[in-house]
């Protein structure tokens, strides 16, 4: 069972990754527009490669992933679980 602290940390991490994802996608989209990437299909993904400008499509995808990884490395915080310290109890029978 997760403690309240774990749930709060998980919510903060998910919120941060969503924000970083939006920023990196916006930057990659702007670069794609500047490079003139076109897509003749009405949907996206790797399945549309035959009807896209393949080289610039991959280039902008790689740039977007690199920006996302860099932002995660910059803003990442190390969340360490709290460990319960159990002290040894000396029991002696006299």
Report the order of strands and helices. HH
Q: What is the average per-residue confidence, as pLDDT, rounded to a whole number?
A: 81
Radius of gyration: 23 Å
Number of strands: 0
**β-sheet strand percentage:** under 5%
User: Structural class given helices, strands, pairing?
Assistant: mainly alpha
Query: Could you tell me how far the N terminus lies from the C terminus, measured between alpha carbons in angstroms?
Result: 41 Å
Instruction: Report the major sheet.
Output: none
Number of helices: 2
Shape type: rod-shaped
Question: Segments where pLDDT lies below 50 for 5+ residues?
Answer: none
Q: Secondary structure elements and their pairing?
A:
Blueprint: H1 4-35, H2 54-75
Helix pairs in contact: 1-2
What does this structure look like?
By secondary structure, the protein is mainly alpha-helical. 57% of the residues lie in helices and 0% in strands. It has two helices and no strands. The longest helix is centred in the first third of the chain and has 32 residues. The two termini are 41 Å apart. The model has no long low-confidence stretch (mean pLDDT 81).
Question: What keywords describe this structure?
Answer:
94 residues; mainly alpha; rod-shaped
């Amino acid at each position: 069972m997760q403690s309240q602290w774990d749930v709060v940390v998980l919510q903060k991490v998910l919120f941060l990754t969503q924000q970083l994802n939006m920023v990196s996608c916006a930057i990659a989209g702007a670069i794609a527009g500047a490079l003139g990437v076109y897509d003749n299909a009405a949907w996206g993904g790797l399945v549309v490669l035959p009807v896209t400008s393949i080289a610039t499509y991959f280039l902008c995808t790689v740039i977007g992933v690199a920006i996302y990884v860099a932002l995660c490395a910059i803003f990442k915080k190390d969340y360490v679980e709290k460990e319960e310290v159990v002290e040894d109890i000396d029991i002696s029978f006299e």
